[in-house]
Design goal:
InterPro entries: Globin-like_sf. The protein is mostly helical. Helix content is about 85%, strand content about 0%. It has one domain (about 5-120): Orthogonal Bundle (Globin-like), CATH 1.10.490.20.
Length: about 120
């Protein structure tokens, strides 16, 4: 994906999250929106690195770390799951087939990992 495509994905997903969860704006304000965009850039970088390494566990390790950090900052696991689902839904518009399939698998496994943590 080009840097422009990545930026479109980040902006689209961040906007959707804040529309679906307006309380995030009340709680975190503009700084929270900026962090959401920054986090989504990190998600994309980790997905691309996982793809380059052909190693989904790299992304899953990142997901475990991300959950820990965001939970400490008051962001629930449910919001991370929501974010991952939104990313997974938008990839068909931007990613090549092989990348899209790999990214989708990573995100699906990440969502499953996070959902298991909620159930514990």
């Amino acid at each position: 994906m080009t840097p422009e495509e990545k930026e479109k994905i980040v902006q689209h997903v961040s906007e959707e999250i804040y529309k679906a969860h307006p309380w995030l704006w009340d709680r975190f304000k503009e700084r929270g929106r900026e962090k959401t965009e920054e986090d989504n850039h990190h998600h994309l970088k980790h997905l691309e690195t996982s793809y380059a390494l052909s190693d989904r566990s790299f992304f899953l390790d990142y997901t475990a770390w991300l959950e820990s950090v965001l939970n400490e900052r008051g962001v629930s696991t449910a919001i991370i799951i929501d974010n991952y689902k939104r990313l997974r839904a938008i990839f068909p518009l931007y990613a090549a087939k092989e990348e899209r399939l790999f990214f989708t698998e990573c995100l699906t496994e990440g969502i499953e990992q996070l959902e298991e943590n909620i159930q514990k």
